[in-house]
């Protein structure tokens, strides 16, 4: 090749003659490699930012998990304490339940005897009334006979008087008949007085017995009535106790549901973190490829790394663009690229 | 009982959503990607609501929405994804999605949204 005559063309000649001269001064040799490395460093910085974010999310999620499990543990402990207290109360109520059983037994026994007692007394009264009725009928019969006899005696006396001397014997007979009639009447009267006296005696002694039994039953009924009221009160207590227990258990279950819900929410963070790491992988792969190419070119002695520079410098922006598409709406703008959008949007 | 179909390739996500929604009284069906989800719908599954991730292997959420709309014209479809860019939202909306949710979404908020989309559920 002919040497150009002027210095102005010297440089041009050298550029055509020496390939490495063709690169711009700022990109020649080590400076070119630096640009590529700077591009990769920029990517590394962004990757670190996102990985730190992932670590932060994981850590916070783990702390939340521990806090929520601790909350559930406290909830369980509270329920156990309450159930312990309830068990003590339940044991105290056990004595009451046993007493109630005895009261119910006594009530049942008492009530069972009543019909028989009442039937027995009714029978006795019926019998008494029947006997009295019989006796009264008998005295009525006797009075009737006595009246008839007296009438006959009067008639006999009249006939005897009519008969004169011949009727004297008949008059004596009539007199005797009248005397018998009077005796019968007197007897009937006595019987009636005896019946009355008997009734009075029965009334005094039998009704006294009946009265005593009735009073006993009344007292017993009153006693059992009081016990029944106690029974009712203890059942009210029991009902209230179990209602409180039910309320406590229901409240516990509601709080437990809430706690479990929060725990499950924490699990979603794992997916977010996984995706951050998943998105970092292709960026790292690209970085590796660019670095490998840079090393290959430098080993080959190539000075022109413009293409590799461009690739390296594009790494960080490409990664940032990908991350921007997954920006968390609640994170501050300086911690996450891109514009925020609402977390929930219904169309 | 209201049936909700969850489509997500994250097992953790699926399990946590399933338990949360079952506690709230919903019946839950699941699929690990768009392809499996579409197969289940073609097999006869008729959910009352579909909640789908976007970035999934084999068939992503956008494609799933497109295909599901050919079979179920009126079933509400919500996305639940880490994606937040407006272009994707607009694309999903255009294809027939009913809403867009960015992970993580608390269980209480999720149930609230479901009851808004399905009144009476």
What's this entry about, in short?
The complex is a heterodimer of chains A (347) and B (121). Chain A is mainly alpha-helical.
Descriptive notes:
The complex is a heterodimer of chains A (347) and B (121). Chain A is mainly α and 347 residues long. Chain A has four helices and one strand. Chain A is rod-shaped, with a radius of gyration of 63 Å. Chain A starts with 6 loop residues before the first helix and ends with a strand. By secondary structure, chain B is an alpha/beta fold. Chain B has five helices and five strands; from the N terminus they run βαβαβαβαβα. A five-stranded parallel β-sheet of chain B has the order 2-1-3-4-5, sandwiched between helices. In chain B, helix 4 links the parallel strand 4 and strand 5. Chains A and B meet through helix 3 and strand 1 of A and helix 1, helix 4, strand 5 and helix 5 of B.
**If interface size is counted as residues with C-beta under 8 Å from the partner's C-beta, which chains form the largest one?**
A-B, 29 and 35 residues
Poorly predicted runs of 5 or more residues of chain A? 18-28
- Total helices of chain A: the number is 4
| Oligomer class | heterodimer
Strand content of chain A: under 5%
Classification by helices and strands of chain B: alpha/beta
Outline the fold blueprint:
The complex is a heterodimer of chains A (347) and B (121).
Chain A: H1 7-17, H2 30-163, H3 168-299, H4 306-324, E1 344-346
Helix pairs in contact in A: 2-3, 2-4, 3-4
Chain B: E1 3-7, H1 11-23, E2 27-31, H2 34-42, E3 49-52, H3 61-71, E4 77-81, H4 86-95, E5 99-102, H5 107-117
Parallel strand pairs in B: 1-2, 1-3, 3-4, 4-5
Keyphrases for this structure?
heterodimer, A: 347 residues, mainly alpha, 85% helix, rod-shaped, B: 121 residues, alpha/beta, five-stranded parallel β-sheet, 19% strand
């Amino acid at each position: 090749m002919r040497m150009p005559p002027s210095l102005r063309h010297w440089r041009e000649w050298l550029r055509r003659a020496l390939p490495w001269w063709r690169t711009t001064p700022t990109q020649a040799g080590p400076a070119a490699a630096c640009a590529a490395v700077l591009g990769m460093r920029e990517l590394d910085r962004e990757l670190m930012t996102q990985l730190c974010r992932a670590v932060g999310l994981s850590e916070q999620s783990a702390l939340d998990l521990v806090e929520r499990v601790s909350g559930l543990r406290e909830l369980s402990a509270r329920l156990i304490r309450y159930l312990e207290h309830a068990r003590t109360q339940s044991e105290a109520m056990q004595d009451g339940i046993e007493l109630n059983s005895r009261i119910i037994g006594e009530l049942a026994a008492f009530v069972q005897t009543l019909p028989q007692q009442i039937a027995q007394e009714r029978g006795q009264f019926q019998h008494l009334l029947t006997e009295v009725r019989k006796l009264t009928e008998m005295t009525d019969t006797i009075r009737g006979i006595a009246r008839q006899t007296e009438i006959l005696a009067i008639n006999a006396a009249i006939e005897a008087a009519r008969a004169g001397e011949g009727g004297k014997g008949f008059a004596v007979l009539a007199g005797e008949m009248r005397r018998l009639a009077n005796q019968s009447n007197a007897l009937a009267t006595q019987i009636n007085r005896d019946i009355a006296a008997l009734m009075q005696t029965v009334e005094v002694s039998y009704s006294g017995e009946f009265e005593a039994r009735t009073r006993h039953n009344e007292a017993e009924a009153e006693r059992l009535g009081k016990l029944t009221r106690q029974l009712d009160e203890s059942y009210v207590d029991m009902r209230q106790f179990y209602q409180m227990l039910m309320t406590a258990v229901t409240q516990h279950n509601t709080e437990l549901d809430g706690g479990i819900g929060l725990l499950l929410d924490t699990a979603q963070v794992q997916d977010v973190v996984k995706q951050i790491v998943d998105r970092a992988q292709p960026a790292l792969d690209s970085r590796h490829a660019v670095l490998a190419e840079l090393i290959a070119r430098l080993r080959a002695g190539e000075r022109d790394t413009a293409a590799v520079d461009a690739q390296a410098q594009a790494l960080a922006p490409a990664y940032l663009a990908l991350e921007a598409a997954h920006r968390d709406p609640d994170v501050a703008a300086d911690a996450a690229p891109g514009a925020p959008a609402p977390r929930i949007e219904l169309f | 009982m209201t049936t909700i179909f969850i489509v997500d390739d994250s097992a953790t996500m699926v399990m946590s959503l399933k338990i949360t929604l079952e506690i709230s009284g919903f019946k839950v069906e699941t699929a690990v990607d768009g392809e499996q989800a579409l197969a289940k719908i073609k097999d006869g599954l008729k959910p009352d609501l579909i909640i789908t991730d976007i970035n999934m292997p084999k068939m992503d959420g956008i494609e799933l929405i497109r295909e599901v709309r050919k079979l179920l014209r009126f079933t509400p479809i919500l996305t639940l994804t880490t994606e937040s860019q407006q272009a994707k939202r607009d694309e999903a909306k255009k294809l027939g999605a009913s809403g867009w949710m960015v992970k993580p979404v608390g269980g209480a908020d999720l149930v609230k949204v479901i009851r808004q989309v399905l009144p009476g559920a």
